[in-house]
Amino acid sequence: MHRTEPTTDVDVRQACFADLAAVSRALGGTEFFAERLERQKNGRGALFIAWLSDEPVGDVYLWLEAAEEHQVRRNLPGVALLTHLEVLPDFRNRGVGTKLVAMVEDYLCAHGHRRAALAVRDDNGRAAQLYYRLGYRDWGHGKLICFANVTVPGGGYEVAPEPCYFLVKQLTTGQPAGVT
Questions:
Q1: Integer angstrom CA distances of residue 35 from 56, 62, 64, 179
Q2: 166 near 138, Cβ under 8 Å?
Q3: Which of 27, 45, 57, 157 is the most exposed place for a label (fewest CB within 10 A)?
Q4: Residue 173 binned pLDDT confidence (cut-offs 50, 70, 90)
Q5: CB–CB of 45/73 below 8 Å?
Q6: Contact 116, 168 (CB under 8 A)
Q7: Would you report the helix, strand and coil content of the chain in percent, each value rounded to 5?
Q8: Which of 105, 109, 92 is nearest to 135 (CA)?
Q9: Alpha carbon distance 96, 111 (integer Å)
Q10: Which secondary-structure segment (H or E) carries 48?
Q11: What's this model's pTM, rounded to 2 decimal places?
Q12: CA–CA gap between residue 124 and residue 167 (Å, rounded)
């Protein structure tokens, strides 16, 4: 499905196990999404899916556990992390990523969090532009190596190191979604 107009009718909601087949079919990574849903069930995170009608077009996972990276645990203890933000190619630059981030920020504010953070690969300038536009700023502790789940041919995923910039945002209670 290819769209040229803005995707304003996208609905973002927290995922459930019943979504797994559709999400896996559209976005790949059955094992990854099943594992994230299990973490969500145990209160260790929250998976959000962007839907256009009944088709998933993007996702983001909110990591609520201690960060895997030592530097992040030391410098941002207890800060929730937005991870694995992805939007299908035909839906990029149409507001889907902004809606996903806004939903996560609303969720965090509703649950008492006052900051959010994320990592962006140092070669992903387009994503970095989005995050800066949404109010995320450099964390002030330099670049770091993050570990991403990369889908491998034949299913499953592997963990791969990625050089990243780390960005943080102060969340304001009552701020309109996606506005900084």
A1: 18, 13, 14, 31
A2: yes
A3: 157
A4: low
A5: no
A6: yes
A7: 30, 35, 35
A8: 105
A9: 23
A10: strand 45-52
A11: 0.87
A12: 13
